[in-house]
Amino acid sequence: VQLQESGPGLVKPSQTLSLTCTVSGGSITTNYWSWIRHPPGKGLEWMGAITYSGSTYYKPSLKSRTSISRNTSKNQFTLQLSSVTPEDTAVYYCAKCEAFTRDTSGHDYWGQGTQVTVSS
């Protein structure tokens, strides 16, 4: 299974960050698919996930700003994070797990990550 993140590397404060994860070698209609980020100087943070059936789960502190959706015909899932601030600057990863977990170490396949900077 291979995952590849794509999206803009620079987002202005108050705007919406939008990233897409393209999956190959496996179907997003199986397993669980997460977005995880790594802010500078901090640990990995699980943000949310979409399941094989399209159900979504979010980190409570981010739930009001986060939306995860999918396009099964393209085998892609997307992250939207609204009202971003410089605190949202991070490397963003998409990742797969076989059983639902919020634990980042429980994900077995990861994309290479994409740097997103929030700055005016």
Helix-strand topology string: EEEEEEEEEEE
Number of helices: 0
SSE-based structural type: mainly beta
Strand content: over 45%
How is the main sheet built?
A: 7 strands, mixed
Distance between the termini: 36 Å
Shape from CA axes?
Answer: globular
How large is the radius of gyration? 13 Å
List unreliable stretches of 5+ residues.
none
Topology overview:
Blueprint: E1 2-6, E2 10-11, E3 17-24, E4 32-38, E5 45-51, E6 56-58, E7 66-71, E8 76-81, E9 90-97, E10 109-110, E11 114-118
Report on the structure:
There is one protein chain. Helix content is 0%, strand content 49%. It has strands at 2-6, 10-11, 17-24, 32-38, 45-51, 56-58, 66-71, 76-81, 90-97, 109-110, 114-118. Strands 2, 4, 5, 6, 9, 10 and 11 form a seven-stranded mixed beta sheet that branches. The protein has a four-stranded antiparallel beta sheet with strand order 1-3-8-7, with no helix packed on it. Strand 5 (45-51) and strand 6 form a beta hairpin. The termini are far apart. The mean pLDDT is 97.
List keywords for this structure.
120 residues; mainly beta; four-stranded antiparallel β-sheet; 11 strands; 0% helix
